User: Fold this.
Amino acid sequence: MSQYALEVRNFTKKIKSKTIVDKVSFAVEKGEIFGLLGPNGAGKTTIIRMIVSLINRTEGEVVINGHNLDTSFADAMSSLGAIVENPEFYKYMSGYKNLRHYARMAKNEISEERIAEVVKLVKLENAIHQKVRTYSLGMRQRLGVAQALLHNPAILILDEPTNGLDPQGIREFRDYLHELAATGISVLVSSHLLSEMQLMCHRFAIIEKGKLIHISSMDETVAEGVDEQREVAFEMDDASSALETLKSSAVAFEEVSLKEDMLTVKLSKSSIPAVNKLFVEKGLSVYGISAAKATLEDRFLELTNKKGEEAKR
Amino acid sequence: MIGLIQNELIKIFEKKMSWIFAIILILGLIGSAVLEMKISDQQKEDDWKVQVQSEIDKLEKKMEKAPSYNDFKEDEYPSEETKEDIQSQIDGFNGNLKDNVNPYTTSWSYLGDFGIAMKSLITLFVVIVCAGNISSEFSDGTIKQLLIRPHRRWAILLSKYVAIVIYSVFLLAVLALAGYLVGIAFFGTAGFNDNIYAYNSAFNPEVVSGGVYFLQNLAYYLPGLILILTLAFMLSTLFKNQAIAVGIGIFVLFFSSTVGSIIVGLSEKYAWTKALIFPHLDQTVFIMDDKILTNITMPISLGILGVYYIIFMFITFFFFQKRDISI
Assistant:
């Protein structure tokens, strides 16, 4: 068996002469939640639709759980479960009948017990015999997960899964994905919501204008920024004399804003203790120091901007 | 494949509309039977021949007193029944006796007149169900969930097609069975081989077996129905739009006979117009006529339909296989 749940090799999609996806390759390990990040229109959805064979590839191949989609279509498709954009169902049928419908399409027979198990897993036992028309979006999302998991796939592919969910629903969904990943199922998830991806994914790739511009684990990406300048806010009673103190010291910094009781400056993380010591020695009372954590968003904007500037040159 | 067809059938029959169409057929049959009861002469005797004979006797007595057409002046129209009028009625009844055709409404003559007329409704309903079935998969977005399964696209599309064909056969069966039962309920049982008159394109009556004629009509109707269904299937797959498919489907259904009769005129001048689809959609003309458009026999006509069928199916499957699903 392959070590990867999903391998995407050299994906390219051209419509007429326009290149929408350009030579994108990545692999998702078993039990990993992998994020595809990028602004709207970057090509994330096209990549996902090429994996699940809704869109024809111009070039490239995809291997799902060791099965090449071109040579062993049925095995490859059996190894994935997906929700592409919104979870769509036949609204005039009950949730259970919808699941039976998809169960009949599976390669291997799916037992009643398995359906009951999946229904329980997504906590829809009470509503499963109601028509899907009556479901809330959150319930539909969960039914979507149920239909994707029915046939025990190796990888779950989710395209913008948190679209339209309320914060409570997003949180539940995220916890749920972590539970799934812990059982060994891989997840490929696309989103333009960066903070959401930061909490959800183990690793991610950034896609911009059809190209893969960055790929790494979440911790690495955030950590890379340790020695970069970041905003630090000092809460104190005499902010202006604090600024004077700082100016007369050797610390490299940049002034951001000065309020009566709050001094915000840009400096590196490593110099925060020295600055604090300086203030204390001068007899200035410091009530609080808050360093803005370098978020994925900053990194993302940084990465995409850098690329953008390179392109301009 | 069986599972796929089963799925598609479930989706058709889970919709109330599919059943409402069958109910409309049954109500139409009952309604036309009530109407027929009200307007036509009823058989009162157990044996219709006895009743016809007594009608003839009555008419003969009436004839003795009736004036002849010759009794009236040249430009004066007879105000009462003339000997000639009565004689033609007597001739009609005698013809019935000779041909062994019951002149009163029987279950078979009712089916021949009204039951068969309902078949256009079946095409209409099948076109609506077909177009709705395909386009709603696109407009509801469920097509995406359908195509990410371990089945090739052509298999999924074919299962839809087969399910819709099964639905149209179901409607035909409802028409045949409900028609038979309504006929018996309103007009009493009649033998399967009881004769009725049927008319060819020149309106010459011919004596045929009632049961056979009815079943022939349904069977000969099937090719045209399947073709219009396939056309609607193609249009709704290509355009993902129910309105276009239903509109064109209904246009072909109701105007094919009009366009067909225009082609009859044109075909003498331009032979290629005989290959247009319209005159061939109604195969039921071949029950009474051997040829249409002077030299087209049924096998040729079916052959022409077959070519259209293959073209429609090829276009449908070819484009569906290639299409990018990006809704």
